[in-house]
Structure formats: C-alpha cells, structure tokens
Write a structure and sequence with these properties.
Number of helices: 11
CATH class of the largest domain: Alpha Beta
Strand order of the largest sheet: 6-5-7-8-4-9-10-11-12
Distance between the termini: 84 Å
CATH topology of the largest domain: Rossmann fold
Bound molecules: thymidine-5'-diphosphate, magnesium ion
Helix content: 25-40%
Radius of gyration: 25 Å
CATH architecture of the largest domain: 3-Layer(aba) Sandwich
C-alpha cells in the first residue's frame, strides 16, 4: 500500500501546528485559520542551537560579555531609529508588517536613500529593478550606496549577501521569497518559516542587520507575519487608513527596546514624511469648538500625544441602538455608556453612539476615557466643549475618575500646545505649578458634568 505524503495543519494566525484539521485553532481561538502544508522533515539533533547562530558554546559570566562593539546603526530616519530603541542592532532581524499598499516598500526604500553611508543590499521579489529605480527617483535622496537585487530564491539571496557583506540588507517581501528545500508554494506557512529562519541564521552569523517586509491582511487569513513574531527580534507594524495620508508605525515586539512607542508619517507625493510632533497634526484646526469632540492627553510610550476624540450620538432608528468604535475598544465604550446611564443619569440606551479616534489612531491608554465621555455628552447635548480644554483620566465602574500615570508630562504638553485647562482626577498629584494652564480636578462623572456643562 502506498503511503500518503505526510501533511500537517498550521494556523495562519499564530503558527500553531496540528496533525488534523480543526475549524478553530485551539491555541489562539481564531476560526478558519488552519491550512494544510507538507510536513517538514525532522532536523538532526543539534540543529536548533546552530539555527540561532550562537558561536560561543560555553556559559559566560554576564559581566564578561563584550557588547561594546555592537553599537547601534542609525537608519537615517529619526523616527524609525527611535521606534527601534535608538537604531538597529547589528545582526538583528526586523519584520515590518502591514496591509498591501500601506507604504512598506516606500519606507524600506527610503531607508537606504536617507543613509548613504551604509552599503545596502535591497532585495526585491515584487518589483523589477527598473520599477525600484523609478520609485527611488521619485523619492529623491542619495542612492549611491544601494544595490538592488531582484531574486526570489532565498539561497541565492543569502549567497550574494555573504559575498557582498553589506551594512544593511532589506528583503521585500517574505511572501515572495522561497526555498527549494521545502516543496510548498512561495507564501505558504512552511515556506515563510523557512525563509525567515534562513535570514535569521544569516543575520546572526554575519552580524548584518536585516529588515524583512511582510504583508498582513485585516483578517490575518493569508499566512502572514503573525507566525513569524516569535522568530524575529523586532516586529514593527505599519498601519493607517488607506484613505487618509497618515501612517502609524508601531512596535509590537522589540527585544532591544520598548514596545510602547509609535511614530507618525505622512504619505506625500514624494514619499513618507516623518511627523516629529504628531499632536499638532491630530488636533483640529477649527477655531470654534464643534459639538461631539474632546481632546485627550494620551501617552504613547514615553511621549505625550494630544489628539481629538470624536463622537456622534443620535436617536436610534431601529429597535436596538447601534454602538460603533473606531480605534477604541468597543466593550470599553459600552462600559463607559453604562456608567453615564447608571451613575450620572443620562439616558443613552435608546441612542446610537459612534466613536472615532482622529487620524486613524488605535488607543489603549485608559486616560482617554475622560475625553470619550465628554465627546459623547457634548454630542448628546449639542454643546461644544471650548477648544482650549483637554482631558486625561480613567473612568471607573462607579463613575469615579481615577488618576493616570505621568500626569505632569501630559499637563506640560497640553500647556505647550496652548491649552488653557486640563481636566484630571482629583487624586492626581501634579507636582509644581505648570505655566499657562489650569489643572481642574474632578472626583467623579457628576462633578465633571457640573464643571464643564453647567
Ligand atoms: P507601497 O510602498 O508600494 O506599499 P506596500 O509596499 O506596503 O504595498 O506604497 C503604496 C502606496 O503609496 C501607493 O498606493 C502610492 C503611495 N505612494 C505615494 O503616495 N507617494 C509616493 O511617493 C510613493 C512612492 C507611493
Ligand atoms: Mg510593496
């Protein structure tokens, strides 16, 4: 009897492996993500430690480890360096993921163009050398030190890189590269894993930093960067609304720095422009306050960021009220609406509520709660909040306003941007007396309403 070729099933969302198909991945709980792939041949014992390229096989004293020569490499784009934790670490593998068309190729080409002191090898499996050349011309910058290599077989790519030993290598994209040791088609789970592992081995052995581009779709259906997250050192996600011109680069995983930072870029006719001070951009230009908006003083990593929260409250047309939130947790919105209903007596259960964070931001800082509540009430009463007022506070289940971290930095940034009043929790301790801004302390939602909407 002929033996059937062995296959296994991989979850395209988290990479979990299973001998049989399942409708729902038991590891990450996603539905319809299991895909069949040929089983990979078992590797000989000892392969794993070679794979990470650890040359020193004996234990070393921590204080004797010499890391001084591994200075960080600046990529010429200040915001990207900052997200990476102060430049790229030699021998590291950085994955930049994002939806198609968001600007990954543009960003990755702007890096060699803005740091001509680095000899860069730009490998592309998606575009011809001519197309890359045309794009580079459009982006401007100095391209004297960048070599373009159109190749999709990863073995050849690495051979070429070994011969050239560039200061930086960029591979666009992981889905188009393939290895001939695995039989499945390029872009499949096993191919993606092999390609990433080969690049990781090369990076660790040679010390050449590698940037790898990966496509990810909204539902994560195509085998994507998610399964690579545990292989690579750093995962940067490039996101934003395709309609808008703003793009946000955020760090999801970083072995060498913080993951709380984010950078904002603007897509222009000549490529991506770094926005060093996003607050000025995320705050509306209108002089007269419009109802349904409130400014939140959020903290993104270590940097304070002020932006506009927008809400629209209207009578529900259908029997059940709709609630929708963009860039904000929908369950948290429901909780805040329940607090307004139960603790402050506002009847919102028969109202549709739509919530939006300006500029396509996705926020998780609890300090935004206060601005959400104020935007909702402002829209509900059609009462404009003065344009020089902002908010930073978390709202608890009993309607109390709780203090949030690093309040001084938020107050300082608000003052710098010309705000005259900031509403915070009455338990927030603001050291010193900030100039030009009045800190208004409120204990609970009824007190806030009295102070603002009276
Ligand atoms: P691209 O980098 O090709 O996206 P990805 O590699 O993530 O698929 O960029 C896609 C979009 O960027 C494209 O729709 C056009 C736009 N764009 C500009 O607006 N200005 C530019 O200078 C460039 C190069 C691209
Ligand atoms: Mg591309």
């Amino acid at each position: 009897m002929a033996t059937k070729a062995k296959t296994v099933f991989y979850c395209t969302s988290c990479g979990n492996e299973s001998p049989k198909w399942m409708g729902r991945c038991p590891a990450c709980g996603e539905w319809n993500t299991m895909k069949e792939a040929p089983a990979e041949p078992k590797k000989a014992a000892g392969g794993a430690s070679r794979a990470v390229g650890i040359s020193e096989r004996r234990p070393q004293q921590l204080r004797e480890i010499d890391y001084s020569q591994d200075a960080r490499i600046s990529l010429g784009l200040g915001e990207v360096d900052r997200i990476l934790g102060g430049g790229m670490v030699p021998g590291s593998l950085v994955l930049i993921g994002g939806e198609p068309g968001i600007g990954k190729s543009t960003l990755s080409l702007q890096i060699p163009l803005s740091c001509s002191n680095l000899r860069t090898l730009y490998v592309t499996g998606e575009e011809s050398a001519k197309q890359v050349g045309m794009r580079a011309k459009r982006l401007g910058g100095d391209d004297s030190n960048c070599s373009i290599f159109c190749e999709t077989l990863i073995g050849t790519v690495i051979e070429e890189a070994r011969a050239m030993m560039p200061d930086l290598m960029i591979v666009d994209s992981v889905q188009t590269m393939y290895t001939d040791t695995v039989e499945s088609a390029p872009g499949s789970v096993s191919q993606i894993k092999e390609v990433a592992a080969a690049l990781l081995r090369f990076a660790k052995e040679s010390g050449v930093p590698v940037i790898l581009i990966g496509h990810i779709t909204k539902d994560g259906f195509i085998a994507g960067p998610k399964i690579l997250e545990h292989i690579v050192d750093v995962v940067l996600q490039f996101e934003g609304e395709n309609r808008g011109s703003y793009r946000i680069l955020r760090s999801i995983k970083n072995r060498f720095g913080s993951t709380a930072e984010l950078a904002v870029f603007e897509m222009t006719g000549t490529g991506l422009r770094e926005v060093a001070n996003p607050s000025e951009l995320l705050i509306p230009m209108h002089e007269q306050g419009l109802s349904g908006t409130a400014i939140a003083a959020m903290l993104d990593g270590t940097r304070p960021l002020l932006f506009e929260v927008q809400a629209l409250v209207s009578s529900a047309v259908y029997g059940t009220a709709q609630r929708s939130a963009t860039g904000f947790d929908a369950r948290r919105l429901n909780m805040l609406l329940a607090v307004l209903e139960k603790r402050a007596g506002f009847h919102l259960s028969a109202k549709d509520v739509f919530l939006n964070m300006a500029g396509g931001l996705k926020v998780s800082d609890p300090a935004v709660d206060l601005a959400v509540i104020c935007a909702v009430l402002s829209s509900n009463f059609d009462f404009a909040i003065p344009a020089d007022v902002c908010f930073a506070g978390e709202v608890g289940l009993s309607g109390e306003i709780r203090p949030v971290g690093q309040i001084e930095r938020r107050v300082q940034e608000a003052a710098r941007l010309g705000f005259k009043r900031i509403f915070v929790s009455s338990f927030s301790k603001v050291e010193g007396k900030p100039e030009g801004i009045r800190v208004v302390k409120v204990a609970d939602v009824p007190a806030l309403v009295k102070a603002l909407f009276k």
